[in-house]
Amino acid sequence: MERQGVQTKGEAKQRGRIVILGGGPAGLGAAWRLHEAGCADWVLFERESHVGGLASSYVDDHGFTWDLGGHVVFSHYDYFDGVLDSVLQGQWVEHVRQAWIWMRGRFIPYPLQNNIRHLPTQELMECLEGLLDARDRAEAPAATFADWILRSFGPGLARVFMTPYNRKVWAADPAELGTQWVGDRVATVDLKRVLRNVIEGRDDLGWGPNATFRFPLHGGTGRIWRAVAERLPAERLCLGVEAVEIDAQARTVRLSDGRVVSFDRLVTTMPLDGLLRRTSNLGSQISDLALRDGLRCSCTHIVGVGLEGLVPESLAGKCWVYFPEPELPFYRVTVFSNYSAHNVANPGRQWSLMAEVSEARGAAGVSRDSVVRGTLDGLRAAGLIPSHAAVTSVWHRRIEHGYPTPVVGRDVVLDEIEGLLSERHILSRGRFGAWKYEVGNMDHSFMQGVEAVDRILLGRPETTVRFPDRVNSRPR
Ligand SMILES: Cc1cc2nc3c(=O)[nH]c(=O)nc-3n(C[C@H](O)[C@H](O)[C@H](O)COP(=O)(O)OP(=O)(O)OC[C@H]3O[C@@H](n4cnc5c(N)ncnc54)[C@H](O)[C@@H]3O)c2cc1C
Q: Is the pTM of this model over 0.70?
């Protein structure tokens, strides 16, 4: 999305002190724009001792680098691309996506509907018949994601892949999800293409907005955000300081170091449920029931496995693999050493896998040990870790806020909250600040921060958070 860049310097009006909460991509987007516009009075507080948020990277005791889940950079915005180009100047690895699905004991190219010829014959027929039935129903609007799956794909692909896979990713039933988020996040069906691929025996991998992507050569995804922060005035980035309490009427934030700072405008990127719990004097109360029903999310476990030797032939060139079958705990595994040779301590002599496992928040019986054990067993059972492979390192993180679940009824609750907060000059933005999965990637989150500042300084209407479809439907 084109913006006027530094031209804002002249037109921007400082609106008093602007406080930013959170130093992930959204908070850094806001900071970047304020700095670019030459604003004098802003400050950012980040709870952790580093920037990056969910897009951070970590080096384990054995020298393996890990992201919090397989992050790839693809973008809907020229402005975002420009910032990334400027901070990591050429320090990128460019990739053509190779996404696969592991099911029925074999690798199948993603998306499945374009590659159903790889399924056992009976399931291939079931999927084809379902697709033909679905063609007649495609126009009817769908009330839930489960309906949308049926109408778009038919019962065959729904049973074989779409329903079990989505149940795993979301740790929720597709019947509980709405359809407002689907946009460019789910590959739809081109029936002629499907039939041509079956008849001509052709593999078809090219779908979607991330058909090509890039990844930092060194330091994982987190390197991007450290590089962004390095270009901002260090004295305005306060790390290791948590916002403990916000008084919406007095316009103050109490911090974990005991200070109380006042704001004229607050751009907060911490998860919205936590923000509401910490905010007093909002003027009206959002009921606990509305919050519980509207603001749902899943937790994500990341299990990194560092191995000795060369990446096996079967995984060479593969970026990530989806796992729809319920017997295996992970929904996706990234061959992380394929993203950059420097994601391992000894490039060329080691390789790495990174698995993602969803947990319904509050689910009983899920522990670090059970997730790690289940993941290692599953990787071996699926053949991703060959029997002779030596495992050097196992790394685990549990992310409390992993995926913002787009439940039916979400937007009613979000609109009510947005009204209350913006009346008090508080903009809650970013993946869990706005709680909108459809605009919850790094590019979206960064630009939500940028656009929030443009709204404050220039009165420009925000696009990303208000009109996700407009942003996501832009041709790239
Ligand atoms: C498993 C997984 C895979 C992903 N894959 C991709 C991908 O391939 N491509 C992509 O573009 N995006 C991907 N994402 C999304 C990406 O991580 C997010 O878009 C991005 O990190 C969101 O940025 P944010 O600033 O909105 O939020 P966050 O990154 O969550 O940052 C919020 C920050 O606020 C801080 N904070 C919280 N509470 C407080 C407080 N009280 N006081 C001060 N600070 C506080 C946190 O410590 C954090 O640093 C993925 C996410 C996950 C979970």
A: yes
